[in-house]
Queue: 3 jobs
Job 1
Amino acid sequence: MSLVAVDVGGTNVRFAMAGADGLSAHHSMLCRDFPTLEAAFLAYQERIEQPVTAASIAVAGPVQSEHVTVTNNHWRFGKRDLMQALRLDRLLVVNDFTAQALAQNDPTAHGNLPLLEGDGQAAAPLLVIGPGTGLGVAALVPSPLGPVPLEGEGGHVGFAPQDDLEADLLQRLQAEIPHVSAEHLVSGGGLETLYRLLSGGAELPAPEIGAAALAGDVTARRAVHMMLGILGTVMADAILTIGCWRGAVIAGGIVAQLHGLVADSPFAARLRHGGTMGHLLADLPVWLSVDPHAGLRGAAAAFENASLASRVIAAA
């Protein structure tokens, strides 16, 4: 069997060959350059000049149905249609944060950076969350048969303001958006929204806001700090809801790029809040994933994961 791991995001699609020695033949493409996932996959196959018999695809978006729509992306596909078009023997499609969770089975490995020190419980679930094009949320539960990923769409929970400024921002956003979710504020687009609201209407793309914040721009830094504070609250809520006493890993590209601003932000205070169950959050470790191949590693791991075995589609 020759397995290709695929990580499909809102902006980029990444490919790699997965084998006993790990990943090889990495290649990244812009989704906008291809009309379909099939076209991008075939372009990768042509590039590597190797036969492919199986694929494990991590997708940003819900994957429960036969037909998959990628969130923040123009791609749509049917699983069996894709399998037939690519002449695959086996295919697995999982949520991208299922893959991210599986990639973090050892949160101290693969160059992860400690953001908050703590002493988590090794036998408890681990939260994996990632602000990027959207906001992905998953958890990894240990079991005798191997880790079990909990799949969900936690980035779309309702935004819960914690002070008067956030309450005002929520009210202003509700005039634009019927349901204001965490993702609307904790993501690349969310950072742009915060900057626009805080600056009185000025618009900048997220990378420029981040660069300006790192350079000391007051409004940009205020927007970044607000986003990181809200992230802390979203994480605390998810940890308490799922019981992620092992700790949390932050994936996605945004926080890694803004790493230098985390310490001075409200992130830690909002995560380790003084609520009724705040003592459960007081000693939880938090790591930052900086591995650009985590999604691919997780997609490859998903194909071998016992809890996902029933979802592997085999050719008739």
Job 2
Amino acid sequence: MQLDFLQKRPPTPRIAWIMLFAGALTFVYAAERYQALMQAEQTHEQRAAALQQTLAKNSSLRQTQLRNKENTLLAADWNLLLKKLEATRSDAVALLSLEVNAKTGQITIQAESPDEESMVNYLEQLKYEPLLANATLANHEVQEESAGNAVKYLIRMKWATP
């Protein structure tokens, strides 16, 4: 057995050193790029969280405003509305139904009159009532089978709460 520990090895080729240097540069570049991407991702996540909080605040604020509006309408003086509607009604008008949308303040009245003239007079009275705004005739139908050709009609208006 011949062990020669003093044997000289050939020098490392230059291409190996060049490849090692290129690999080290690539590693440094990749590490810096990764760090920049991670920071950008954190920034985007923080912005997204801030936007979600803003949206949540705006949504809750909008819901609160809608709730307050509904509460205002629900707490309104219903007796006053009914008295005004009753005061504008003539003997020639029969109120069949009354619907009030608390969210929009929209009032829908279904009524019946013996003729078109009574219907138009009632509509005109509603238009001049300050508590009721924009009274319009939504539709009407002449009931030919009834005595005297009665007219059924629908009136829509806004309730201007005081």
Job 3
Amino acid sequence: MVNSDPSFKIEDYAQKHPKWSAEIKLLHKIISATGLTAAIKWGVPVYSVDGKNVVGIAAFKNHMALWFYNGVFLKDKAGVLINAQKDKTRGLRQWRFDETTEIDEKRVREYVKEARQNQLDGKEIESKKKKVEIPEILSKALDGDAELRDAFKELTPGKRNEYAEHIGSAKRKATQVSRLEKSKKLIVQGVGLNDKYK
């Protein structure tokens, strides 16, 4: 039986996507038998082991898919996996299903079990973290406000980078100032720029 976030209900996600309701529930049942923890992340069902994402279910207009977060390591004996976002992802692989696809429970279970084991074995794509420069306007604001500076230091590196890039990418000085002012409240609250989308 799958462990689950108390707020997780596969029925809620299936209801939002009636076209794929039966397939979503079937995939959830298959994945649940593999010992992964279920939660809703980014608005979709995601299954993890030891806090690391392994596979997710996503429904779209014309197809639905399993997303394997480190799918690049799967053997893919059946040749079903695609890299749907070649320019953006290195490790993600997607297995699509449409109206004509019959879900092979045994094969799906094999892929999920292999993905789970790969994660337990530590097979992960190392992220290419680009170093983001703190824009001058943000740097000056941090220097002049101890509360803001301390709150900024408490943010994760990823969240700090989000703010730095968001503020620094504005071409006009007035836009940078506006973005900085809007960001200050969130920073002091310890909230990431994109947390509301997660």
